[in-house]
Amino acid sequence: MLSFTSAQWSAWLAAFIFPLARILAAVASTPILGNKEVPLQVRIGLSVLLTVLVAPTLQMPSDIDPASLQGLLILLEQILAGVVMGFAMRIIFAAAEMAGEVAGLQMGLGFASFYDPQNASFQPILAQFLGVIVSLAFLAMDGHLMVLAAISDSFQSFPVSAVMPSALGLHTLVSWAGSIFADALQISLPLLAALMMTNLALGILTRSAPQLNLFAVGFPITLGMGFLVLALSMPYFRPLIEHFSHAGLTAMQRVVQQLAR
Q: pLDDT exceeding 70 applies to what percent of the chain?
């Protein structure tokens, strides 16, 4: 008859619970996989499946009881590591949505907003459009699979242990989050430049012909110029999105590595 001690049960439970906490937090906070359109059962099932595949390859400390205070602290560390990785990747999508919001405001579409089920809020139509484009390009380049691979590799750079995470990783994450403004500006810069020249031309035209109704003429011209430049810029979005996606994956790995220092 087989018999197991309480220490063995604790070791087996720790070998499953701690990796599951990090993977579940990362899957819930990453883009695409963590969207609210993805059913909760799918996200939990994917996390459990990835944990079953990854857990046997990990070197887990055998003297940690998951029900102890030390086990609770380690559990919180794993949740923090997973949320940090997901947030580092989600910045790319936030940058694209911010670029669409800024460009839409210049085009006169600031009030044209639709309900975004991903964020459970109202988003400007151009921001939602660029968010969909980035999501499709991310899926086309197998970005979701690379994110899962990065989550699996994170246990090598930041293993499950009782060592407290370093604040250097959080500092790197904050610095990476600050680049969202530069990324959004790079995405929307062609559209902003074209709209600025259009507004300057309309201003000169209105100055030379004061009887011209600027609101009746300027809005269709600005809107049409914005859509024209957006259509001409679409072929150049893919390499830019690919560069940002690889930068996000690199930031995920760098942040996790610096958490272990």
A: 86
